[in-house]
Amino acid sequence: MKLTIWGAAKQVTGSVFLLELEDDFRILIDCGMEMGKGQTNDALYPGSAFPFDASMINLVILTHAHLDHSGRIPNLFREGFEGKIICTGPTMELAELLLLDSANINRRKIKHFQKKRSRNPGYKPDFNPDEIYLEKDVNKSLEQFLTLPFNKRTKVKKDLLLTLIPTGHLLGAANVLLEVFENGKSKKIMFSGDVGRSNYPLLPDPQKPDQVDYLVCETTYGNRLHQSKVETEEELRNAIQKTCVDMAGKLIIPAFSIGRTQAIIYTLNKLFSKGNMPAVKIYADSPLARKSNKVYEQNTTYLNEEARDFKDEKGALFYLDNLEYIDDLKESIMISKSNESCIIISSSGMLEGGRIQNHIKENLGNARCTILMVGFSAEGTFGHRLVNSGANVVMGKRTVPVMAKVEHTDAFSGHGDQKDLLQFVEAQSPEELKKIILVHGEPDSMEDFKELLEEKDYQNIHIPEKGESFEL
Q: How many Å apart are CA 268 and CA 20, to the nearest integer?
């Protein structure tokens, strides 16, 4: 069989891995969009969103719902894919929300382009037309989803078995284990998806994986450890005390609507339920987050024991007296401009879109504001620029002074750090593991993690270029 790395090669986003079996059965593991890198069209197939013929793909296996793993699935169907998409139940439900939201953003992009072109016929779009899809394309793809539970060894066809192994990170997220039978021999290959971390809010710890022959492993935090030395609850308590209580200021938390926002609101719920903190007003400014909450609440069997017990005791995971969900855009803008001491949680986490941009724009000059970045921001995103901005940051075509305090914590990062990744790999015997392929990380992170693995006696470790193939 042959594996080709068509995404997440020497970068964190855009996972697309093509596995071709000897009988010409072709499997995509993930089909994600690149974030913060501009256009992703490789131009090998002009007019296509992919560097391969989508109609030749037989099956897609989805590790989890985040758009850098799922975001180009509708494009596959637009270009002739007719197969199934296999994932867990929660992954399908969350992917539906994210893909429909992405389609809505695409619709706004098209309207903006048409408006500009009506005034200037030579105006070119600031997006790749080949990668645009709308709600109808999403709905078509959703009809082809097929869900499996964790740890069910499933025959895909006579010479192919699939098992989805829980890995934390996000509700329903899985490592993908494939057992391929060729020429009377069994070969096992595992794709890590995104490896979660232990003791994360809401989610169970990652499950120790089985022994395999080939391992495709993410390296987002391959060269660093999580720096936060306190628990998530204590991290939020400190931030609220310093900004909202001591300064009567505004705490803005950019967070992805799916996953990170639920972890933060659940942690706030635990914190304020103890009754030893002032009831600071909390605004959850993301309609998508409210929809995501329902998916979490309806899939409690996928949560950890603490979260299930909390829900049994309190009745809800994501609702508390001092929390208000904001749906109306005008109300969102009013909150951005107000001087009220409050906590605002809004998407997106990398500051590349959504209502968070207005909250940031209105409060960069507010010395009583803290912008708390709680996750990874890919290079090229506004979130990355802001974290590394210093006194000024470029917004659009303007250079804006930064008076607000910009802080970063990895206490809420859903990604396992170097220690977690090493633990994931060390479940494999160096003598039995034939090849390791490192993906989904920045080049320095990959190189450092490769060196660490070599020190642990692992051999045949590869850092692929985009489009590079391996015979397995």
A: 46
Low-confidence residues of the chain, pLDDT below 50?
Answer: 38-41, 43
Backbone Cα Rg of the chain: 22
DSSP single-letter state for residue 69:
H
Taking each continuous run of H as one helix and of E as one strand, the counts in the chain are: 13, 22
Residues 6+ apart with CB under 8 A from 329: 355
**Cα 172 to Cα 94: distance, rounded to the nearest angstrom:** 9
pTM: 0.92
- Residue 88, CB half-sphere, CA atoms under 13 Å: how many? 27
Cα 409 from Cα 349, distance rounded (Å): 13
pLDDT at 277: 86
H helices of 315-387, in order, are: 329-337, 356-363, 382-387
In Å, the largest CA–CA distance within the chain is: 70
Q: Which residues of 273-288 are buried (b: 16+ CB within 10 A; e: fewer)?
A: eeeebeebebbbbbbb
Residue type, 219: T
Q: Are 430 and 212 in contact (CB under 8 A)?
A: no
In angstroms, how far is the first alpha carbon of the chain from the final one? Answer: 5
Q: Which bin fits 471, alpha (ψ -120 to 50), beta or left (φ > 0)?
A: beta
- Which candidate, 3, 6, 41, places its Cα nearest to that of 466? 6
Which among 339, 384, 328 is positioned nearest to 362, based on CA atoms? 339
